[in-house]
Design a protein that fits this description.
CATH superfamily of the largest domain: Zn peptidases
Radius of gyration: 23 Å
CATH architecture of the largest domain: 3-Layer(aba) Sandwich
Largest sheet: 6 strands, mixed
Low-confidence stretches: none
Cofactor: Zn(2+)
Protein name: M20 family metallopeptidase
Number of domains: 2
Helix content: 25-40%
Pfam family, one: Peptidase_M20
Organism: Bacillus salitolerans
Keywords: Hydrolase, Metal-binding, Zinc
Distance between the termini: 26 Å
Mean pLDDT: 96
Structural class: alpha+beta
Number of helices: 11
Strand order of the largest sheet: 1-2-6-3-7-16
């Protein structure tokens, strides 16, 4: 398979260039669906059936399974959307400098879409029937919390034994074995407007009340326990000489263990149940929308198998934890053995310096193909 992949690396780069030069921000349905059509055509040419889960506002999701497959045990998760607005691809289109390729979404995760496709091609070329043991779920809204695809992922996952998630490998090549859970909340404060010079005593400042809440919220952070609460966006008021009658804040919450979710939510509700500025009202909206991906026995067992595969093909496999979220959290929470970061190596995702390490294309495609084969044919159950 290695020789096949090396031979086809120029073709892989050409497809990556094509995908990168198509805008596919989460809210740009036209571009996401264009990516989806390219992938649908590519998999159908390989004998796969592609079911399109149509969405009205966001891009459609793809569920891909070989026509003759019966109850595949390996679920592979990937996403088509990026964080970049329409027009970004034209402003800084795909380019190669030395051993790196650049462009919006090149590592998160358009290169992964291509390495996944070519891993399947390599298995077929090699006569390895394990390509039939794979169910592929490619969604359109991962970057905004998998709002419409979470239930679909969970539905497709329950009949499988392993989940391989195609987020990029870390800069040092490490895979991801645990992720913190994530929640998004909004605090809304209503006050009473008044002229700050003529009759300020008649006002009730929503901004002042929100300031008290922000301090209390940040005090919930406990880095030793893997808990962080960050007020990342605030807005309110109408003018500098008006006591504000409205203010709100967007809050990002991260947890390391699912048990922490209930504790944090109780504390958030407690903070919002009282006011420090008389005459103001506070309300709280939101939830934990991604459970943590915890490193458990099943994860460790799958990681050891992958490390054995790495030893076999000459790739040293290390693992790491990260605070960022991904769809790996959903499968892990269902009790399915899950490993993330199986895409190629790169870095600086979500920025204008995002890059792909080109030599990792062949290596990580081979790693993925060999993992699929090993999981299919091994006798020991996890």
């Amino acid at each position: 398979m290695e020789s096949f992949l090396k031979k086809h690396q120029p073709e892989m780069l050409k497809m990556i260039e094509k995908l990168v030069n198509i805008d596919s921000g989460s809210y740009y349905k036209q571009g996401v669906d264009q990516i989806g059509q390219i992938l649908k055509d590519s998999y159908e040419q390989l004998g796969y059936q592609v079911k399109v889960d149509n969405q009205n506002k966001l891009g459609n999701h793809l569920i891909i399974q070989y026509a003759e497959a019966k109850e595949p045990q390996i679920l592979v998760l990937a996403h088509m959307d990026t964080v970049f607005p329409e027009g970004t691809a034209k402003e800084r289109s795909f380019r190669i400098e030395g051993n790196r390729a650049y462009g919006p979404g090149v590592i998160d995760m358009k290169s992964s879409l291509v390495t996944l496709l070519f891993a399947i091609k390599a298995l077929q070329h090699n006569g390895d029937q394990s390509f039939k043991n794979v169910k592929i779920m490619i969604n359109s809204d991962e970057e905004i919390g998998s709002l419409t695809s979470r239930k679909l992922i969970e539905r497709e996952a329950v009949s499988t034994q392993y989940a391989l998630v195609m987020e990029p490998a870390r800069k040092d090549g490490s895979l991801v074995s645990s992720r913190r859970g994530k929640g998004n909340y909004t605090i809304i404060v209503e006050g009473k407007a008044a002229h700050s010079g003529i009759e300020p005593e008649k006002g009730r400042s929503a901004i002042e009340e929100l300031a008290h809440k922000i301090i209390q919220l940040h005090e919930l952070t406990d880095h030793d326990k893997g808990i962080s609460v960050n007020v990342g966006l605030i807005e309110g008021g109408s003018s500098a000489n008006t006591v504000s009658d409205h203010a709100e804040a967007q809050i990002d919450v991260r947890i390391s263990e699912m048990e922490q979710a209930e504790i944090i939510e109780e504390k958030l509700e407690e903070i919002c149940s009282t006011t420090d500025v008389s005459g103001t009202r506070v309300s709280l909206e939101g939830e934990i929308n991604r459970p943590p991906m915890e490193k458990n026995k099943k994860t460790n067992a799958l990681l050891r198998i992958i490390q054995d595969v790495g030893d076999e093909i000459g790739v040293e496999i290390e693992d790491t934890a990260t605070g960022g979220g991904s769809d790996a959290s959903f499968t892990s929470a269902l009790g399915i053995a899950t490993i993330d970061g199986l895409g190629p190596v790169g870095g600086n995702a979500h920025s204008d310096k995002e890059y792909l390490e080109i030599p990792s294309l062949t290596e990580r495609s081979l790693l993925l193909a060999t993992i699929i084969s090993r999981l299919t044919y091994m006798n020991d159950n996890m």
